[in-house]
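During the first year of the project, the team set up a workflow for recording each protein of interest as an amino acid sequence followed immediately by a discrete structure-token representation. This format lets reviewers and collaborators read both layers of information side by side without switching files. As required by the reporting guidelines, we include two representative entries from the current panel. The first entry is reproduced here exactly as it appears in our internal archive.
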Amino acid sequence: MARGRIMAAVRAWFEAQAFVEVETPILQVSPGNETHLHAFATELAAPTGERSRLYLHTSPEFACKKLLAAGEKRLFTFARVFRNGERSALHHPEFTMLEWYRAGEPYETLMQDCAALLAVAAQAAGTAQFSYSGRVADAATAPERVSVADAFQRFAAIDLLATLGDTAKLAAAARAAGIRVAADDSWSDIFSRVLVERVEGKLGVPCATILDHYPALEAAWARPAKDPRVAERFELFVCGVELANAFGELTDAGEQRRRMEQAMADKQRLYGERYPIDEDFLAALAIMPPASGSALGFDRLVMLATGAPRIEQVLWAPVSGA
């Protein structure tokens, strides 16, 4: 099956690059601290009968960064991850995340990794192109690199950097572009709506696109770029599908705590819940070397390489239920 061939080829590529494959625990004291991600919760029963709350992780990131802090230089993992409330043609409550990290290497190197992995997956699947929902991308062409600001200008005629942090200004620009804006929308809400409605569907054709230099406001895990208005964050798009999310990793534990607390305050306001902060993770972050890391949806990669229209078609046994 194509899925097995692609996984074997990807694993071989990482091993040839001197990466070590790691396994991370699914059960965590915190599932992650992203505003809009929802986790599955469970309880750990101690022999004494005492019970404590644990979560199924939404990403292996915390564990991987603890391993970087412990001295690993290059690592990758095929992690089973879990996100509640997500099910669509491209989403599944349980899926496989391919994450990899490079200590002491610039995040531009991850762009080269992404290009190489696309070529490896296409070769393993025996195809010269990726396809999804009527869109086609050539597998042999190097990804186009486009900044978020340039993409907003090109596809929505919005000068994004001129609106940074100014909700009223971005709202006016979005309305002028014909995009609905609600009275209680935040700057991030409007940014996301423009991105989804006007930009994402245009990316990744006729070749892959690296959407680079996200506004710092939209890069909670990334360090600032040379221009402090933007951050070292990029996403990889193929056929209009978001495939990977990559960062020059933030290693300032105090700043990371502030950002996590803000995200959880927003989560409480929007959804009436919050997740704890993993103190061991922050302690590890304080001693973690400079690093770059990427998370890639492996099931989506298989979909694109095989032309499958729904994620369930590339899973051995999808989760039952609605």
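The second entry, processed by the same pipeline in the following quarter, appears below.
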Amino acid sequence: MRKRDHPIYSRPGHLIRRLQQIAVAIFMSETGRFNMTPVQYSALLAIELHPGIDQTTLVDIIAFDRTTIGKVVGRLESKKWVKRVPASHDRRSKCLTITPAGRKVLRAIDAAVDRTQRLILAPLKPAERDAFVAMLKRLVQLNNSRSRAPLGMPPDLSRPGRGRTRRGGRAIDSSGEVSR
């Protein structure tokens, strides 16, 4: 058997990991001048869509691991794109808000992110693109509970005593796609 014929090259896990590597490479190529990673983009977009969320809620919205989200938020803060402010209901908790500079960079990067999504799918025929994305969504939704960082929706923060309001119930994946 030739090395390229090994079964690993046909296994879904390997192919998904490779496609993720390719997607990140395309993202970085298209958005390099903004000095932003896909995870930073997702986090910044989530903070814009859900002003005042805490880091735990951010983790749920973008399906990212809790152990490194602090570093991601720290980088966004050092770039002056977000601010951490003490929560009114609990001074130990920090609420995240986007700054005007953060909004400006999100608007500036939008076209490059859209171009990235098109380039990822470009090798497929137009009819295959929708089917492929639909299958990806289905696999992600059906396997979400198996993830170490499952995608979650922010809790309903509009109930009394929560100190914040829910903002649209949108989740954002690491490529910047917004889901409901």
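For the second entry, the following points were noted during internal review. Residues 18 and 148 are 19 Å apart (CA to CA). Helices lie at 12-31, 38-49, 55-62, 66-78, 100-121, 126-143. Both points are flagged for discussion at the upcoming steering committee meeting.
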